[in-house]
Amino acid sequence: MAIIEDLGDAPPSPPRPTPRALPSNLPELCMRLVIPSGFATPAPWASNSEEEQMQYEPVLSGDLRTWRDAAPKLLQALAELVERRGTKMDEEDRATAVVAVAPFTLEDEAWSTLESVKLARRLLPTLLTRTPRPILTHVLTSHLKPLFARNLHTSVNPATGRMLPRPRGGEGTSGYDLPEAQGWKSGSGRLIAQLPEQRGDVQDLWHLVVPPLITMMDDYEPFYKIRGIQLCNLLLSVSDAGLVQRTGIATLFSKSLSTALTFLTHPLSGPLLDHALPTSLRLITLTTPPASAERSNALSVLVSEGILQPWSMAGDRIAVIMPTLAHLPAIIDALGIVSARFLKAFIPHLTLLLTFPSPPTTVSLPLQVRNAKALEHVLHVCAPRVARWRGKVLDGVVRCWVGLREASAPGKAGYDELEHALYDILAALREACPEVEADLTAVHALDPLLFAPLLVTRLDQAVAAAEPMLKPAPTGAATGGLRY
Description:
Blueprint: H1 26-32, H2 50-56, H3 63-85, H4 91-101, H5 114-127, H6 132-147, H7 199-217, H8 222-237, H9 241-246, H10 249-260, H11 269-287, H12 293-314, H13 318-335, H14 343-354, H15 365-381, H16 390-406, H17 415-432, H18 436-446, H19 448-455, H20 458-470
């Protein structure tokens, strides 16, 4: 029997909170878009460390997540306001809007969503359409410079952007990494991402851009080092060699990049190498004369510190080895035949990676493909000096080929790419030292059925592929469905 209880008049349920109305004026809109200080911690997906991700994940709960999800509506409201006001916006208002919008153009930040990045990248060029230099000057002077005021680099003159003759406070002075001086790590500190894009602008704004940039590059957290190195690469792409050298900043850039190459045990060491290596190469080629001993020496140091040292310390960490293989071809292209001095280190390591593991796995396959392409490039650049290494190279290629066959890999995605890379290595080896043909004949004799597909030349492959098309159709064969 059901029991019915009279509860009387139930208390009314509390009203749902109404969403906060969107402001209709520019200052309040921009104030609502200021990145909360809780986002100063690097995004969890920027690290391979599960522990760091677990520590950061709770920060994105509650108010911060709500704020992030509401940001696109604020950006859309700001875009509509800018469109309505058009040319009536003065430089100060435009600069205020740039400060609010610029951090959202960075897609890998914790406060960004795909929608907010899309809106910000569409709005920012509109704000900078008219008189971009005065607006950038206002942004860098009134908004960015105060953020770094307590975090000045000890080796840079903040008034001129030049290297100081001696560090402020003397050698070994530090203290600019104290937590209370790290306010620039909020979203507003990413304003430096809006670098001037014209060489004339770079020279005029040098003293405003370089001091905070050097501070980011020398920060103790690799996440911010990466940000600084990315911006350094952009700055070098629009800077004159004379300006970089005359101000002494080339020396500071070089020291910062050299330090970045030593972070080999951090979860972000892979991305750090991926940005530090091409930026170092750009700095060297910008500030040294072509075919000079100075350039050769600088590039040799880069090979030792940025390629060989990570190889010796990375162990089986694919994330560290991959960027070295990706940027090795460009570095030895710049170094030229002088790269041959490193063959004693290059060949044993690259041939070992061809055969480890054997057979290849889906995890190791991208590394082995990248490694095979790097080895082929080394053979081309150092062709006059590779003859003595032909046995080592051939041994690595043959062992890798056997591993592919053990994996029953032909035709599988990715495995074909490695197979073709082996063909390219043998083609480069044949070109560099024709005497290798006798060695190839000996390999073929070991197991003709196994090694014949590997040792055939590209010309033979092309002829074999064309033969079916060249043969006349047999009498009475179908003619593609056409009737005569």
